[in-house]
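User: Some background: our group keeps a shared notebook of sequences we're curious about, and every so often someone picks one and asks for a predicted structure to add to the entry. Today it's my turn. The entry only has the sequence so far, pasted here. Could you supply the structure so I can complete it?
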Amino acid sequence: MGLVRADIELRNLVDSNLLPIDVTSLVDTGALHLCIPEHIAIQLGYDCQAADKREVTIASGERKLCPYVGPLQISFKNRKCFTGALVIGDEVLLGAIPMEDMDLIVHPAKHALLVNPNSPNIPASTVK
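Assistant: Of course. Here's the predicted structure to add to the notebook entry:
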């Protein structure tokens, strides 16, 4: 399928004085969460030393303890969601949970992240 990247906006929901950050994220349906590098967390006003911690398993199978910050807002096209972020790695990674929350789909042939065409105006979800 190849790599899929998407332009998203990240915003600190607690400190409204901080401007949002526009970033290009790697879209990863095999990951669950939003992951951001430490320099992005700092720009968003989060203190990684005081943050909550999560134990995560990375692709190699190794387990690591990493900061978990938030709340933050992710925006993509006409969609938004509210989440926390794991502080790990050297690039922004958009995982399955925020993609599901915003009702987005990955189009393999176009190497693109898209708004679900079955619900173009408002995100849809299943609750049953």
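Suggested note for the entry: The beta strands are 5-12, 21-27, 34-36, 52-57, 63-76, 79-87, 93-94, 104-107, 112-115. DSSP finds two helices and nine strands in the chain.
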